[in-house]
Amino acid sequence: MVRSDVPWACGRGAAAMALTSILLVAPGCREQAPVERAPTIAIDSAGVEVVTSDPLNSDTYCTLSEEPVFSVGTLEGADPYMFYFLRGVARLSDGSIAVMDNGSGEIRVFGADGRHLRSMGGKGEGPGEFRIGRYIWAMSGDTLWVGDYRPWRYHVYASTGEFSRTVAMDPIYLNGSLGGGVLANGVSVNVRDLFQFPVENFRVPEPLFVEAHAADGTVIGELAKLDGRRWGAWDGTAESLWTLFDPVPVAFARGTTIAITTAMEPEVRLLDEELRLRRIVRWLDPDREVTGAHVRAYREALIERRGGRDSENWQRFDDDMISESRPVADVFPTVSSLRVGRDGRLWVYPYPRPGEGADWWIFGQDGDFQCRLEHPGGVTIYELGADYLLGVHIDELDVERVVMHELRLP
What we know:
By secondary structure, the protein is mainly β. It has helices spanning 292-306, 316-321, and strands spanning 3-9, 17-20, 40-43, 49-53, 63-64, 70-72, 86-91, 97-101, 106-110, 116-121, 132-138, 144-149, 153-157, 163-168, 180-183, 188-193, 205-213, 219-232, 241-242, 250-255, 257-261, 267-271, 277-283, 335-340, 346-350, 359-363, 369-374, 379-384, 388-394, 400-408.
């Protein structure tokens, strides 16, 4: 595919994203109805709608139910209810929940009442079996696409548990996808790195490639080339590591929306199922300069998490992580994580600075900011609906539970 060589967004130095020509055709823009927290709406030179808001200065919050409305998982009990290394959950149309348990390699389905209904898959190399399972995507008719690697591929299951087929990436992905997802039309969005990226002494960002694949796994095209972390080493290091506070680009896909951010700019680019740039969601950017106080706070927090430098949890690599020799980025990233809800809303988790927390920001389908949500403690979020949040909670005993909370918007 011919690259357009048009920079996608301004970044520091060479750190910018370039889009291929597949994204240069933008759909027509429609009139925007006024909203209560009216964002600034503009049309850029390419005819793409840009919606700008100010989430940081908003006091509008959405909330979660204090207790989960669904919870399954136990320290001791029947095997289906004991989890190890959960890496994906999805809600089906009848309210049941599908879970990817990596310890067993099984996909387990539980009814809305928490009762185990069926299991499928398993550890192994055979059809529909998993080496390392990662993520579940519930499609029309409750068909499940479940990621697996190495190499990266999807196993597809019917809602009743029968294995249907395997969708392998062509060309092959030796590593697991670093983001993306599966759209409603069966197009998967996958993010690959260079399998053996040379250590460049913190000078050159590791390139990441966002690619679209057809329902049979064949590549359609490259959506974006992103600058990842800058890696390097110095004399005496245990192994190579990255520049402290370097950005990690994020791509997420669900339904009819692909969301991509460089994590260097205060914006997310939204593509539609035809792989066209549809909208840019942007927010007012605070000062992101990294100071010595931030670096000290990072080091102190790492030492505390490990239980002190004399703790048995302290590793040789941790010395490198807090070393004065480790390079530090000039500015913080803008984004730590993204999600696209089952209802099409965009969820953005800004990069939390050392010693500080962060709230999720929720944007409507038109790009307007709606509310903030305090991140639920101990929960990894996997799926969001119009009125629910679905994730995995790990307690102080390292017991993993699948939990769903009711989501209430203002």
